[in-house]
Design a protein that fits this description.
19% strand, 4 domains, Rossmann fold, alpha/beta, 27 strands
């Protein structure tokens, strides 16, 4: 029986569709949720399971029946009916089209089908905001793309609360929960779903409510609040899309009407940021602006690799990477050029964004079938694997990219970068902030580095720092400036106009001005540091790397799987335990009370020769206490204010990453042995020569004796003749 507060759909009216997704390997949480969520007369419930073939279908069906859910058959082209529960069969991919079920046989192996994403993406496209997606724990990254699509369409996304969510680790994950509008325990999810279904039918303008004119006035007021809070003007945004995004946020925050939501928006800067993020969803794609990418492929990418060998690196920084399409597009170009080289350098792509939810989708590396229209069939087949109705980036390409949360306004930049890509971000910054960000790019780039901007962006105010590679292009070459500006962090912004991705920063005192250094002095200092400084990294308090020095590659061996900047995941396994101990000691020493500094000593260890043939020695300072605890002294750490800087060293030959130095040492030792043998043979020759000389001397002495005897005989003969 329908309760008075519930809304039963009329004939021809589409029901709200709720997709509950989980893993067939652990259905307990799913059954607990369904016991609390009775069938609703205005809701069609679809259960989508990973590894469906592993489910005990009879036991599961019986448990559903006891919970009040009778499964309806899933038939191709059958309509979704309100009040019914659906469970697709094993080895099929289910989608929706026009409110009707579409079934196709799975072409991939179990676990490689994108079962959840395939259905949720189709649901978002078909239901136009009348949908709720729920993902329970244990599905991995499957569902992340679907959550993004549901939010773009104006639907609601919910996830089960896990230990990872409670510990705040979701921001660095690729799980759907990182994008969810609410992360709740099972006992609260059922009530939130029921409330969401009621809001779906209340989202339209109810009878007797505000008319179109009142809604237009409310939307104009919301746009004014956003302009004040974020500095971006949405007055020209499409009314239908704008209203749909606002209604979605109303559903999330449970605002009863648009006037109440406007009041909340005025009081909450956080909600203004959330609405701003929703309005920016879906503005990126692979190889966006094909002409610019063709220019990169033709002129820029080959120049980045020119003169480099496998001992070198090509470093790329993608700023505002969103859900990863641009980072992977650049990765495709770089990989394709590397395939033409016999001795290719290593490539690193640092992709950063302030929105942790977008980064979760980027790490998942799964995209809708529409990506097939963004590139050639050859590239699609080479760099993507089809999983259900989605495409997943191949592992070879995923391993190039390291995704991390980073604010270009507040956080220090990466350095020694070959290519900086910052597309369609500057348009959200005011002129004052742009004037500080452009020199930042100049600072981060190597000499002759390249800056890649969006079509609506330029560097016309900084013509002394960058020059276009081609006329009317948005690809610029770094120019050596007469004076190099050293940026200060965080940037200062005025209170009247702020950047969307950053809160208002307090201005620095007028006496603190940016300093400048002569280019020659800067280059000399960089060369000096490069030559003599030991390898080090700078991390934050969570051990995420903020900066790499040169020559750290020998200590780094990333683990397989999701890309990360966490130092404990990057360091070689042989060093991980000792490094963790050093990090712990550094944290304890800098935790608010001054730690006693133990006596220090200095060791030197030969790490092999650099390319120019100079022997490189690294000084490793470590505390005596750590030296007693860690045999071999593999690392030492010193706390820094806010960050930690680690100097890492290891005796040559013990670490797989230093095998090159060990091999050189072995060759040198072999050469020494050969030289020793030559020396021994030379000594033997000298000794033989001495023996010959000695024999010659003896013969000479005997000859002299004979001569003296002959002389005596002659004298006696002469005496006899005289007589």
């Amino acid at each position: 029986m329908v309760k008075p507060s519930e809304h039963a759909v009329s004939q021809g009216e589409k029901p709200a569709v709720v997709a509950i997704c989980g893993s067939a390997a652990s259905p307990r949480a799913l059954l607990d949720l369904l016991r609390q969520l009775a069938p609703q007369p205005n809701m069609a419930l679809v259960i989508v399971l990973q590894h469906r073939e592993a489910l005990n279908a009879d036991a599961f069906t019986q448990a559903l029946r006891e919970a009040g859910h009778d499964l309806s058959p899933v038939e191709n082209d059958a309509p979704l009916v309100a009040g019914r529960t659906y469970l697709p069969d094993p080895d099929v991919i289910m989608s929706l089209e026009g409110g009707r079920i579409q079934i196709q046989r799975a072409q991939q192996r179990a676990g490689e089908r994108g079962t959840i994403d395939s259905f949720i993406v189709a649901l978002a496209s078909d239901e136009d905001g009348q949908s709720i997606a729920v993902v329970l724990a244990g599905t991995g990254a499957d569902g992340t793309l679907g959550f993004k699509a549901i939010k773009e369409a104006g639907g609601l996304t919910l996830a089960e609360e896990t230990e990872e969510a409670r510990s705040g680790e979701l921001a660095r994950s690729n799980h759907p929960a990182a994008l969810a509008d609410a992360v709740l325990p099972i006992d609260q999810l059922a009530e939130r779903i029921k409330e969401g279904v009621r809001q779906v039918f209340a989202a339209g303008v109810p009878q007797g409510g505000p008319d179109a004119a009142d809604i237009s006035v409310a939307l104009a007021s919301i746009a004014a609040v956003l302009r004040k809070r974020t500095g971006h003007d949405f007055h020209g945004y499409k009314t239908g899309t704008f209203l749909r995004r606002v209604q979605r946020r109303m559903q999330v925050v449970r605002a009863p009407d648009i006037a109440a939501y406007l009041d909340l928006l005025r009081e909450s800067p956080e909600e203004a940021q959330e609405l701003f993020n929703d309005l920016l969803i879906g503005v990126t794609q692979f190889f966006r602006d094909a002409r610019e990418f063709e220019l990169l492929e033709r002129l820029v990418i080959p120049a980045l690799f020119a003169g480099k060998t496998r001992e070198d690196r090509v470093r790329v920084w993608v700023i505002g990477c969103s859900t990863g399409e641009e980072a992977y597009s650049l990765g495709i170009l770089l990989r394709e050029h590397m395939a033409t080289l016999d001795d290719a350098p290593q490539v690193q792509i640092f992709a950063t964004d302030l929105d942790g939810r977008a980064l979760a989708a980027a790490r998942a590396a799964r995209y809708a079938a529409t990506v097939a229209g963004d590139m050639t069939p050859e590239r699609l087949a080479r760099w993507f694997v089809k999983e259900g109705n989605t495409y997943c980036v191949v592992k070879e390409l995923r391993e190039l990219c390291i995704f991390s949360q980073h604010s270009i306004i507040k956080d220090a930049p990466f350095s020694r970068i070959d290519l900086v890509s910052c597309r369609n971000l500057l348009i959200y910054l005011d002129a004052e902030l742009q004037s500080q960000v452009i020199p930042l790019f100049h600072f981060a780039l190597k000499p002759d580095g390249v800056l890649f901007l969006g079509n609506s962006e330029n560097v016309s105010r900084h013509a002394n720092l960058f020059a276009p590679i081609e006329n009317r292009s948005r690809v610029f070459r770094r120019v050596d400036a007469p004076n190099r500006v050293l940026p200060n962090f965080p940037f200062t912004v005025t209170t009247s106009s702020t950047v969307a991705s950053s809160p208002v920063e307090r201005p620095l005192p007028h006496s603190i001005q940016p300093r400048t250094l002569e280019p020659s002095l800067v280059r000399q200092a960089e060369r000096f540091v490069e030559r003599h400084a030991p390898a080090y990294v700078i991390t934050d308090d969570r051990y995420d790397v903020l900066h790499f020095s040169a020559w750290t590659g020998r200590y780094i061996e990333p683990v397989g799987g999701t890309a990360t900047l966490n130092l404990l995941h990057l360091i070689h396994p042989d060093l991980r335990i000792d490094l963790r101990g050093a990090l712990t000691q550094a944290a304890e020493g800098g935790a608010g009370r001054p730690a006693r500094k133990p006596p220090r000593r200095t060791e030197r260890t030969q790490l092999g020769r650099r390319r120019r043939g100079r022997a490189c020695q690294e000084r490793v300072r470590g505390c005596a206490k750590l030296r007693r605890a860690v045999q071999g002294r593999t690392c030492a750490a010193r706390p820094r204010t806010g960050h930690r800087r680690f100097r890492i060293a290891r005796p040559a030959g013990l670490h797989p990453a230093t095998r090159g130095g060990a091999a050189r040492d072995q060759r040198a030792a072999a050469s020494d042995r050969r030289g020793g043998r030559v020396h021994e043979r030379g000594t033997e020759s000298v000794q033989r020569g001495v023996s010959v000389a000695q024999r010659g001397t003896a013969i000479g002495q005997r000859g002299a004796t004979d001569f003296e005897g002959g002389t005596a005989i002659a004298q006696r003969g002469a005496d006899h003749g005289q007589r």
